[in-house]
Amino acid sequence: MRAFDDGFHNNLKLMYDHLGVKYTSPKFIYPLSTISTTDGKKLPPHFIHSSSNHQVPPIRPEGCGYVEWILRILYLAVCYFWFTACCFLVEPNPATPSDEGESLRQYLGRIRLPQYFVNTYFLPLLSSVTTCSHSELLDFPAIDAVDYARRTYRQPHYTVVGGVQNVQTKISNAQSVRLGAIVTQVENVGSKVQVTWTDLKSKEVHSKQFDHVVMAVTPNVVGAIYEPLRKLMSSIPVNQGEAVVHRDRSSIPDCSQSLGRFAAAARQSVDPTQILHICSNSSATEAIHEHPCSVLVTSFPIAPIDPAKVIHRARLTRVLRTPQSRKIVNRIFGGNPQHAYQEKEKSWSNGTGNVWLAGAWCWDGMVLLEGCVVSAMRVAASLDVEVPWLISQ
């Protein structure tokens, strides 16, 4: 499930409209729970949030009295209002030649957002989007989170009908696609760019020269196959995680009483509300999506899942952001050039030697799908290729 929204994913939405990709605006329920520090078991939800606050008042968690529930709602409302107001009124400290800029950790401290709210609500919800640890999220540039909050404020969220595979089918239609090939090297040979790859079946090594090469891969892969960017790419952090499709319902925190009547009504609805469990410990968060197809999809699990009930595992590489890596990315893609690099790397910007970079991390913002589209549009413009969804406007 890859959700997108108005306000932030503007170019992605334009592309979907141009391609005729259908999308819908589903409703989500987010039970927030924690893992016990004593026995490692998942505790019942302490709060049940709804997308765009469509469920008013919020569903009361079991074991939570009415007075406690009302006080908790008031506390969250005040904290959320304060954070939202700060996003629009308090600018993060910008990067300068002598300072890499303010991190999210520093920004939250400066606006004095209560630590309990940060640890229990803010970090679990936002890290379910960024799919990284809480510490890694706090190291993000503050402007990333602030800009994301501004642009998604009171905006509807969408998901593609039929899944992202429908988008992949439309994009790859009538294209020459070679599967089972591992690229091992990209190098400049005169005015050409040579790509070397290994065929997974035959194990044969092949090379071919091209006029231009676009690398839409993560920074660690760029550094591994393209020597001129090896050192720079090592300064852009990535982490490894996985998404697990399974049927282990014991991995879901017990909230049957809270959601029982709600779930029964949702199943009878034409457009049923989906449930996404947000479960965290002191350092990380996992998201468990109760898929309409009666399976569970856990992203970046932090608690054990019964191996006998696992249907599929997919390894994922997630590109992270820091003020330092933001400065590097902006330098490569035309930002402030005042950061000191080695001379060979200092001269490299996107398109040098007819080698181009694209991907979710190749722009100044949260590492999400909009970055993929924006960076691809940038490459297209540099190569004088028309972007059809911009022409039709």
From TrEMBL:
Domain of life: Eukaryota
One matching Pfam family: Amino_oxidase
Domain spans labelled Amine oxidase: 102-223
GO molecular function: oxidoreductase activity
Alphabetized InterPro entries for the sequence: Amino_oxidase (IPR002937), FAD/NAD-bd_sf (IPR036188), Zeta_carotene_desat/Oxidored (IPR050464)
Protein known as: DNA, SC023
Organism: Aspergillus oryzae (strain ATCC 42149 / RIB 40) (Yellow koji mold)
